[in-house]
Structure formats: structure tokens, C-alpha cells
Amino acid sequence: MAKDKKMVEAITSMDEDFAQWYTDVVKKAELIEYTSVKGCMVIKPYGYAIWENMRNELDKRFKAIDVENVYMPMFIPESLLQKEKDHVEGFAPEVAWVTHGGLEPLQERLCVRPTSETLFCDFYKDAIQSYRDLPKVYNQWCSVVRWEKTTRPFLRSREFLWQEGHTAHATAEEAEQRTILMLDTYAAFCEEFLAIPVIKGRKTDKEKFAGAEATYTIEAMMHDGKALQSGTSHNFGDGFAKAFGIQFTDRDNKLHYVHQTSWGVTTRLVGALIMVHGDDDGLVLPPRVAPTQVMVIPVRQDADGVLNKAMEVKQILSKHFRVKIDDSEKSPGWKFSEQEMRGIPVRIELGPKDIENGSCVVVRRDTHEKITVALDELQNKLAEILGAMQSDMLERARLRRDESIYDATEYDDFKRIIDTKPGFVRAMWCGNEACENKIKEDTSATSRCMPFEQEIISKKCVCCGKEAKNMVIWGKAY
Amino acid sequence: MAKDKKMVEAITSMDEDFAQWYTDVVKKAELIEYTSVKGCMVIKPYGYAIWENMRNELDKRFKAIDVENVYMPMFIPESLLQKEKDHVEGFAPEVAWVTHGGLEPLQERLCVRPTSETLFCDFYKDAIQSYRDLPKVYNQWCSVVRWEKTTRPFLRSREFLWQEGHTAHATAEEAEQRTILMLDTYAAFCEEFLAIPVIKGRKTDKEKFAGAEATYTIEAMMHDGKALQSGTSHNFGDGFAKAFGIQFTDRDNKLHYVHQTSWGVTTRLVGALIMVHGDDDGLVLPPRVAPTQVMVIPVRQDADGVLNKAMEVKQILSKHFRVKIDDSEKSPGWKFSEQEMRGIPVRIELGPKDIENGSCVVVRRDTHEKITVALDELQNKLAEILGAMQSDMLERARLRRDESIYDATEYDDFKRIIDTKPGFVRAMWCGNEACENKIKEDTSATSRCMPFEQEIISKKCVCCGKEAKNMVIWGKAY
Question: Closest-CA residue in chain B for A118?
Fold first, then answer.
């Protein structure tokens, strides 16, 4: 049994060193591998399968609200990137530049897209002429590049996968509605599919997207109490439209600028899955997103009839669940460890005694609960167990998060909490960037968002004591 | 009616100017738009939906034969690209080079992947240690960049979308089997899904992939008689393994080099769809790949009950087909033209008289045949019509192709046929690259492949008259 445990023992415990625990899980669960291209990773089959499930589910949800997929070039000419002032300031310092094509130097440098607002605007400027051409609700699934100095698997890498939606509308109201609709779509996806509870809110001006009028965000709390910005939706107003000259003739026969939005989520969400649900045995995946939902593990598989029965169970369940069987020559204990490390929601243990009794043992990955189930009830029972696991995981994550959100009305309290307790702090803010900067400097916490659900905790800014405008959620963040 | 025809009339006829016809279709069917990034295109929603259907179908077929998806970085360090001699010679002249990251010059240039053999090899070198780690059958869906001088939508652009599979095997036999399996998968996909007949064969050494031992290809004939290489599958032997040091310990406890393959198809296939099936009214899509299979077009939609009935028909059919309704304010004639231009397989015309008779008129896009169908039989009848259309399109394309394949035993004949008749020529070849070069110089035709189905047309090379080794298919190509 000692040998069986080796693989698990090799993981650092979460409490001991959370960062190392994360890296261990990412490697041991075979999600990612480092490459000789600094800051870029290989997403391995298991990691990619998780992303693929996310993408397929999100894409289905997008299509149900009239999003159309397109593909834009990966290169942006330098002059195009420079058209919107705030945007170029935000991104130019962190892009990769192509200067040669084949053996020739280029006449104009091209950057590898860090995001594609400028390309979509350049396209919309000609594609949109009349109100009949509106709205445009386009999205693309692609990779983008940002030349980060320090990188971490899934959380921050020089290249990452994402979707970016870019829309154009006839009115400001419609643009705002789309911005919120997409944020709501992200929030529902995170809670229903990933079992990750999120806080919806608006970013402060300091934290908003380069070129946006308003940035909305969903913020999730990781196991170590840190925040992960898990998706954003931006309302650009007509700022980009004016910079790029995107006008249309409306029913009034006059020229108007369009109103635009953009919104995205990335492979960061895989990082969120790990850090919200994982434990000291490895990854724990909610059943809906899990590439494999059920692992059948024969016990004493050399015994007469065991392997056949296990195959049969696998076959029957495959019609309803994503099932695999581990019939390798490893010991059952080793197989259990591997299944746990990979976060497969349940395993089915099936040995000679179980078969004799016409039953098997179902083990939940999240609670380690062992449930003896009659084989002829297995299908229904499994559906129940997986359903319960999905909702339990969301509830547990929500409870844990809510227990780690503290209110602070005095600055000393604020600093003490941030300093000593993992989690978020709710505190009032005057709306002045100086206070935001001071808080960041004093505590390294940043404003995560002004949540949509506001509550007046006090009348004074927690930092300067002047009249407060908004309740803000503060926290250290990835 | 004159106005209704305008849109169609704006297309150049195929016979008049095939290249212009192609460009017209690509634009008018709203597949693609040019961008301010030279040689790069926007794939618009309709064009992308076609690619998405191809990708989903192919991906399903891949997964059924144990292919796993991954994601590799888009950048390749210059030193990595240079590791395999033939490979770097083939690709270095046509890659885009990143020289700066953010504000800093890079220590080593990175190229944007033109293909990812080198990255997969770099990964496999560590990931593969034992025979237990084999085979690796990985694939990725991504975009690649090749700095082409002249570009055409879908057929040749500086950036294009594709899938690239990269595998590693314990034995040469297994690698060869996988190479052929993937070629067969491509061929079946083209014929069954895209209704495009292809010729399977092996490339000559001159035409094979940079670094491959053998390249297999599927070649399709376009409406103008030119060839389009529609997919390739390469067997690398252990050449890359030796260059990158990819070794494993086999059951014999000795170190062996792996045997590798790679294989890919691209958005070129959208170009093939256009040029195999299109006509002077625009695109014609086989039902299986069509984003919209049925367009319901109400006639006299202002008349009492017409629009409601049309909606109802659409609703019912939606459970079984991909259906849209065109209830815009355009005239029916205009709507017909648009549906034809976009190649939607069938339209359903439904007016007051049809409703009175309890029927509607189904019009096939490929034959323009009008079929009166009772509304209560519509669902079954439509399935029949779409099924017939799918197989008729394949058969027609096959007939047209076969009628344009000529045999030549004398060089004068060969030259005359290539010069005067669109299509392919079958002729014997001695295996000498000098003859291949001479033929290309004299006629601008290239060797498309040595088809798997060989036939001895004569005993002499059509060019030099020496002893022939293979029958080769020759043709002008995209």
C-alpha cells in the first residue's frame, strides 16, 4: 500500500504551499507541460479536453443568444493598433512584433493580436452601412499573445486560448444590454457548469479595459482566498466607432456612430477549476465539465469473471455517461490514486465479492463517500450521485467563499483583515483613484469590483473617510 | 423581375472567367472579406459556419480512431526549426519572424508556426520514455502562417486554419498504417460529407513534404479541370526522431527511435467545395455540410395566414433539419436569388395557393428541379430529397472528373492534351526528377500523385521514353 500512495504523497499539501500544490496538480493531473518557448505551454490531452468541454458548452449558450462565429487575422498592423489612444497605451508595451516575412523585412511591423478590437473595428467600418446591417454580434475562438514577464500555467502565459466577442449596435441601450447579457451568460456558465460561484460587478476606472467606457467582471475566490477575474464584458460606447469611423445610416436617414461591446473568457477558467475545487489528492472536477465522469476499476481483475463484468458495466453506462475503464496492470490502489489525481468525479470499484452480491461500490471524488449500489440500479443511482455532486460542489464553494468575505469600516481593520485572513473585504469607497492606489500600496489588495448587489456598510470611504459612493470588493488577486 | 435578378447577374459566368467567378462567389455568398492585413482574410459567419461543420465532423471521425486533441505554442524558436535539415530548408524562406516582445528585442527570433513538427518533436522527446508511452496520436486545430507572395481566398493565404495531427509509434509498420488510415479518413470525409471525389496516391519525391519519407495525398478536380491537393498524410520514418533524439525503451529493454507521422487538412477545403459544386448562380452546398439546409420562403407573405403557416412549417422541420425562414421585406425573387447564391440545398416556396392545396414547392439548388410536396409528407420527402441531392452531387462530380481524365503515351499527345483540355492526364513515368522538371517546364503541369490504383498504360516514360516505373496523374494545380 505504501507504493500505491507514492504518487499522491508527491503532491505538496495545499496548506503547506498553495503555489507549489497548484503546480503539482497541473503536472500530475497531466494538464500542461512546459516547453522550450519561454512562457508558452503545451496543453495536454486531458487539459485540452476540459477546455473543449467548456468551449462547446459556452458556444452552445452563445449561439442561443444569436452570437455568430467568425475568424479574424492574427496580425495587426502597427498603425491599426494605434488608432484608439487608450487602447494602444494599454497593449503596445506587451505585444510580440513580427518584423520579417520570409527573407524580407516588412514595411510595417505587425503585432500578434493581444485582443482584436482594432481588427473588428476595421472590418465593421466597411461592413456596416445601414441600420439593416445591425446589430453585429460576432465572436471568435482563437489564441492571443501578451508578452508577460512572469507566467504561470493557465493563469498567466504569453499565449493563451480564449473567445473574444465583438459587437456593434445602433443604440447605447442595446450595447449596454448586450454587455450585461454576456456577463450574465458567463456567470450562469460558471455556476451551472463549473460549479464556481462568482460575484458580478463593475470595475473601477483604474481597473477597466484599455479603451472601454465600462468594464463588468465576474470575480471568483480561489481556495487560498485570492481573487481570480474569471471573465469580463466591456461597453465601449462610441469611442472606438469615432476612432475608426464606424457610421451607419439610421431610419432617420442620418449618419450615426455605432455602439460597441467586447467580452471574453480564457483558459484561465481551467486554473479556476483547479483552485476552487481541488484538494490534497489532486484535481476535483464537477461532473458536467469532466472529460471522464466515471472510472470503472476492477478489483482483483485476475479473478474469474471480474474483467468481463467490469467491461459490461462500462458498456452499459457509456450510453449515459462519459465512462472509462482502467484495466491496466497497475494495482487497484494505484488506480484509485490516479483517478483521484485527475479529478474524475466518481469511480466504481467492482470485485468478486461485489459481483457475488450483485452490487458495486461508488466512490465520490469530492467527499470520498463510499456508496454501495445494486448493479441493476446503477444507472439511475449514478445520475443521482453525479447530480448531487455537481450541486454540492457549487454550494460548498459558495459557503467557503461567503465565510471568507469580511466587512471593514475602519482602515486599520481593513489592513489587519487583508493581512491576516485569506479572502475578500467589502468596504466603502469615495470613488477617488488616490484611495485605490493607497490601498494597493499599503496592502497589495486591489479593487476587484463594485458588485451589482450594493449594500451601504458605512457612509465613509474606508481609506480617506470622505463621503462614500460605492461598496467595493477588495482582495489580493491572480 | 429585372431587379430581382440583379444580384445574380453581377456574378461573372464560370465559362467566361473562372477566377473572377470564384472571387465573385466568395464575396457574394459572404464567405470572406479582405482586410488591411495583406494576404490575410476575415472568415465571415457563413464561411466560418461551413468550416465549423467540417471541423466538427472530422473531429468526430478522428476521435473514433483514438486521436487526442492538444494545443502547442504558436511560436517556434529559430534553433528548434533548424533541427531537421530538410524541414528548415522547406519552411524557413516562408515564415513570419517575431523579433521583439513588448519593448525588448528577443535574444532568439521566434517564427510563427508554419506547421508544428518541430514543437511536437521537442515535446515527445521528454514525454516518450517507454513503450508504455506509445503510441501518441495527437492533433491540434489552429491557424498557421506561411508568407505567400500571391494569395487567393481559402486557396492560398498567409494565415489559414487547419488541423495538424502528429503521431509517434513504436514500429515503422504502425506508423505506415496510421499514415494510410488518416488518408483514408480524409478521403471518406471528402466523399461522404463534402460530396467531393478524390484520388488517393503517393507524391513523388520532388513534391513530398519537407522532411518526410513518404507523402500521401488526396487530389480533387475543380470545375475548371485544375487539381486541388485537398489533404496530405506524411510518414517521417525515424528521421525527425533521430534529429530530435526521441527514443524509448522497448520490451527488449533497448533504446529505439520512434516512427512518426503527420497529416492535415485546411480551410482550402472550403475552396474545393466552391469550385467542385458551384455554378453560375453561386455556391451549391451538399446538404451534410450546409449550415442551413432548408430555406422557407413565403410567397405573398402579406396574404392572410401565409406567414403563420410558413413559421409553422419552419418550426416543425427544425427538429430534423437546419432550417431558416426568410420573412424579410424583400421580394420572393430576390430571396430566391440570395438562397441560390448561398448554396442552401433546398428552398420551400409557400404561398396562398399552396396552402389552399395543402402543399408547397420544394426547389433543389443543384438541379433547380421543382417538386410539389404535400405538407403532411414534407418531413419524409425532404429527407429523401436531401439524401438524393447529397449522393447525386458526388456522382455528378465523379462523372465530370472521370470524363476529364485522359491517357497519354506519347509526349506530343501529352502536351497537346494539357494545352487544350482542362483536366488530368494519366501517363507513365521513369521515376527520374529530370522528366518531372521538364514536363513542368514545358506544360506547367505537375505530378499530382502516383495513384494507389496503378494501371500500366505503356511500358515507357511519356517524357524520356525510358523504362517506366509508375503511372502518374499530371495536371495544372492550385
Answer: B36
Question: In chain A, which residues have their Cβ closer than 8 Å to the Cβ of B42?
Answer: 70-73, 119, 123
User: Distance from A179 to chain B by nearest Cα, in Å?
Assistant: 21
- CATH number for the region A294-388 comes to 3.40.50.800
B103 interaction partners in chain A (CB closer than 8 Å):
93
Q: Tell me if A80 and B36 make a contact (CB, 8 A cut-off).
A: yes
| Amino acid of residue B79 | S
Tell me which residue of B78, B96, B75 sits closest to B87, measured CA to CA.
B78
B96 touches chain A (CB under 8 A): yes
Q: E strand or H helix at B200, and its extent?
A: strand B199-202
User: Once rounded to an integer, what is the mean pLDDT over residues A164-179?
Assistant: 98
Q: What is the pTM of this model?
A: 0.96
Give me the helices (H) in A318-410, please: 332-341, 352-357, 378-403
Please compute the mean of the pLDDT values over residues A131-143 and round it to a whole number: 98
Nearest-angstrom CA–CA distance, A61 and A309 = 39
pLDDT digits (tens, 9 = 90+) for B96-120: 999 999 889 999 999 999 999 999 9
* Residue A372 β-bridge partners: A361
What tens digit of pLDDT does each residue of A192-225 get?
A: 999 999 999 999 999 999 899 999 999 999 999 9
Confidence of residue A9 (pLDDT cuts 50, 70, 90): low
How much is the ipTM here? Answer: 0.95
Q: What's the CA gap between B124 and A207, in Å, rounded?
A: 41
Higher-confidence position of A346 and A103: A346
Cβ neighbours of B99 in A, within 8 Å: 97-100
- Ranges of residues in chain B with a pLDDT under 50 are 1-5
- The ranges assigned to domains in chain A are 17-277, 294-388, 405-475
Name every chain B residue with its beta carbon within 8 A of the beta carbon of A45.
Answer: 68-70, 138
Q: Which of residues 9-38 of A touch B (CB under 8 A)?
A: 33, 35-37
Mutate to test the interface with A, among B27, B31, B37, B81 (most CBs of A within 10 A): B37
Using pLDDT thresholds of 50, 70 and 90, give the confidence band for residue A2.
Answer: very low
Interface test with A, best of B31, B33, B36 (most A CBs within 10 A): B36
Q: Are A300 and A352 in contact (CB under 8 A)?
A: yes
CATH value of A17-277 in 2.40.128.90, 3.40.640.10, 3.30.930.10, 3.90.180.10: 3.30.930.10
State which CATH number among 1.10.10.10, 3.100.10.10, 3.40.640.10, 3.30.930.10 fits the domain covering B12-277: 3.30.930.10
Residue A312 CB contacts under 8 Å (≥ 6 apart), including other chains: none
Instruction: Identify whether the C-beta of residue B122 lies closer than 8 Å to the C-beta of residue B162.
Output: no
Spatial distance between the Cα atoms of B237 and A390, rounded to a whole number of angstroms = 47
Is B405-475 CATH 3.30.110.30?
Answer: yes
Q: Residues 278 to 297 of A: which have CB under 8 A from any B CB?
A: none
